[in-house]
Amino acid sequence: MSRERAIEPQSIQIGLRVLTALVLAFLYVPLFIIILYAFNPARSQSWPLPGLSTRWFVATWNNADVRTALLTSLKAGLGATTIALILGSLAAFAVHRFRFFGREAVSFVLILPLALPGIVTGMALNSTINLGGELIGLSFSLWTIIIGHATFCVVVVYNNVIARLRRTATSLVEASYDLGADGLQTFRYVILPNIATALMAGGLLAFALSFDEIIVTNFTSGSEITLPKWIFNNLRLPNQRPVVNVVASVLLLVSLIPVYIAQRLTQESGGLVSAGRGAIPAAIEDAGEQAAAP
Amino acid sequence: MAQRLMRPGERLTAPPPSAVRRLRHRIGVFLHQVPAARLALLLGPVLLWMIVIYLGSLALLFLTSFWRQDPVTGAIVQDWGLTNYQFLVGESVYRIIAIRTVGIAVAVTVTDIALAIPIAYYAARIASPRVRTLLLLSMVLPLWSSYLVRVYAWRTILSGDGVLNWSLHQLHLGSVNLGFSRWSLWIVFSYLWLPYVTLPVYAALERIPNSLIEASTDLGARWITTFRRVILPIALPGIIAGSIFAFSLTIGDYIAPDLVGDTEFIGNVIYQNVGIQNDIPFAAAYAIVPALVMAVYLLIARQLKAFEAL
Prior knowledge:
The structure holds two protein chains of two kinds. Helix content of chain A is 75%, strand content 0%. By secondary structure, chain A is mainly alpha-helical. Chain B is an all-alpha fold. Chain B folds into two domains: 20-49, no CATH class; 77-309, MetI-like fold (Orthogonal Bundle), CATH 1.10.3720.10. In chain B, strands 1-2 form a two-stranded antiparallel sheet.
């Protein structure tokens, strides 16, 4: 969007710039502070820090509970991401290729677990697991965590894949069929390479979402401890504070990195950001289509 | 040379297809001829998942809210009745908590809209493309990452001997006891959900054609008039779309009130009833309250065409 002249008066432009800088500081200063705290040599949380040290990183690595929680979080994240990748991309193909009754409702139903308050989703799943326990012996476990996470991760993959499909020319698929490839070959050699980075981005975002989720997880995990749950249970214990600080910083970085990579992956192909937990890119694609239509 | 050339068509005789290949071909043909089968194959799994697990759970939540807990054994008794709801309406404490939750959610939503519009406007209409990309990236990163860590960071900052009071002391402004009050809750929630509001507002502003704004200016409107009469009305659906998340995430939270607040939210009551008292039917009944509030909010949002901007 290049513009010959700005209609905004100079004063407004400067004011907006200052406000933007302040808001950015508001967003990022707390993150830097918590990372600094991971290097706090003292047990006390008082500011300013007496110095910097990596001693608590070693202590954290040797903490058996933290390791178990990390492993649980990784398993839950991988499980939920796998399910979300399969269900989300299938749904994206269906909505992209077919016109059917209730087509518009699909994305609404998929976004619902993220749009409804977390406590409602958590409580609903909790009631189901409880009743399932009575009826078929279902119990709170890693699997119930995975099922809960997958439910709200599907929309992330769905949005990324459908945005990519909308950009992919259908002539490519037709050409593949014309040249004699069957459906599986077309998928393997034409569609998959086209959506690979979108799948990757969706998967990374789904993983990041699952990896630090706590609101719903508290209702679906029973006695299983994930990393965020471990922080939540331990942050009030003065003795554990240094370890909590380290775990918090690691959790922050581990979830920032996949998001950053996902961002790069979707940007290269010209699409904006997987914003709004995935709700917005599809909307932007829609807007693009409407604008392009005569 | 000439006789070594293959006759036309010779290379096209392929070896007889293997059994696997034939089966694949047959399935392919079937799927090609029956589009409904293709659709069912693609859509079936996700529909099954969302209907059975998610919508089914929501329905069950509603049913559970009419059951009751046996006070002696603690087991859920499937007796139908309005006991939980009578209790909710009768005890003023639950009404107060619900009103407080919604009240703070409204305050947070309004704050986030007020903060989001300038930054989104700057990103969409003033910043250079490079700065715009950076701004969007810096909005997206916190959106996806470490909700709990961000609350914990504020807990550290706001605590009595934390960064905030130290900074105020350095500036000779005395100290405040912001930590663990409604004010701190308001700040932290506004902080947490700001990116959710900013991105849809940005998307809405970015879509406004320049010609509209130039026309308004050419017709003699000052910037503030153009903003109020042209830009804001067009961006409204985007603003409402962003507000859905800020509002919904606030009324559904119980972690932040626990860690940086001094009051209970609907979520805290539910969490305690599930974790400690184990009164699932009562918790389910109380969870219907935010669900209903949200349903009303979504209906209003749809009236204002916000879903098209989501």
